[in-house]
Each structure stands twice: as structure tokens, then as C-alpha cells.
Amino acid sequence: MREINKILTIAKFTFKEIIKSNILVNIFFLGLGLLLVTYVAYSFTYGEPARIALDFGLGTLSLSSVGIAIFIGSGILAKEIDSRTVYMIISRPVPRYCFILGKVMGLILVLIVNVLLLSTLTLSAYFFIGGEFAPILMWSILFILFEAIIALLVVSLLSLISSQTIAVILSMIVYVLGHAIDGVKLTSMIAKNKVLESIIDVYHFFLPGYYKLNLKEHVIYKQNIELDYLVNNTFYVLFYSLFLITLCVLTFNKKNLD
Question: Taking the model in full, what pTM does it have?
């Protein structure tokens, strides 16, 4: 129980620290951008302005959430090490796993706030110009949050074993590949080359398949999607997130902070 309280305390202070920074200002300007795009779609688009506004809105929500996740996750330890607060916390004593779990939990709370604020603006603008509600909308927003959480955990793990810059670059590469991997497997070049196909399969097994969380086309074109697909990918995110968190804890336990 004491360990849980320690984790929650670290999460609370991490959340407050980031919220007090310029992150809310960035979210504010992103929100203004979403409203501007919606106005342009409503005023100058013929046919289905609501669909175009939703397309831009969900795309912006996804990219901004992943961008914020990579930005805040890459510095999961850098600031604490520079200010030497990590040494004070761990020497209290606070187990290392409590510290890293608290940090991750606080960062995830920031992502939740970001997604809630921007998705509220996106849906409000969408409904204002005549969009219709569908349950897949909520699933799409939830999957965008899942996508951001995985990106956060990936960059957090990489930042524990490399520099911030390298962690950010590698996280972006993994993100792009994670969306492209499904389409790459269908190309004739991969299908005819067993070696490349094996490499792709290995990548697909160990690294995140972000494409599984992209529901935008289903939302925009009102395509049917099986509930099993949504549930299975929800469990995929949960198990993969636990896998990444475990790696973060193990890596931090062995990390030399001197």
C-alpha cells in the first residue's frame, strides 16, 4: 500500500509539473487550428464539409497526441537528472520501480487531458456543421489515446537507454513504420522475397503495429467494423503496454545514474 501511495504521489507531481509548463498553451493553439480548419471546411467545401472537417480533426488529434507523447516522454528522466531531484527521491527511499511507474502514470494523465480537450473541440465543431453521431467515433478517439500511450512508452524506454535526440528520432521512425508495415506486407516485392518477408514478420512481432489503431477511414466513410476487431486490439494495447512498462522498469533498475 505504501508503494502505491508513492507511485500516485509521483504521478500527481509529474502531472502538475507538465500542466504548469507550456503544454496547455500548445493544446490551446492546436484547438484554435482545429476550429479554423472546421470553418474553412464549412465555408468553402462543397458536398460533405462535415466529413472533411472530421477527417482533418481526427488527423490533427492523432498527430498532436503522438507528438506530445514523444515530446514529454523523451524527457522522462533528463530534467530530474539535470536538477538532481531523482537522487533525492530515490534516496528517501523510493524504489526505482515506484519512481518510473509514477512518472509514466503522470505522463499518461497528461495525454488523457490532451485527447479529451482536443476531441471535445473536434466533435463539437463536427456536430455544429451537421455531423451525425456514431459509436465508432468514440472508439476512434479511444484508439488515438491508445496510440499516444504506446508512443509515450516507446520513447520513454528508448530515452532510458539512449539520448533524448536519438530516442525522439527512433520513436518517429518506429511510428512511421508501425503505420506502414501492414501495407508493405502486401507489396509484390515483399511477397516474392522470403527473407524480407521474414524480417517484416519479426518486426511485426516485436514492435508496435500502429496501423491496428487507425480507425479514421472507418469513421470517415462509415464503414462497418467488427466488435471483435475493436476488443482484440484493445487487449493488444493493454498487453503491449504492460510489456513496454515492464521493460522500462527493468531498464531503469539497471541504469547507472552517476
Answer: 0.88
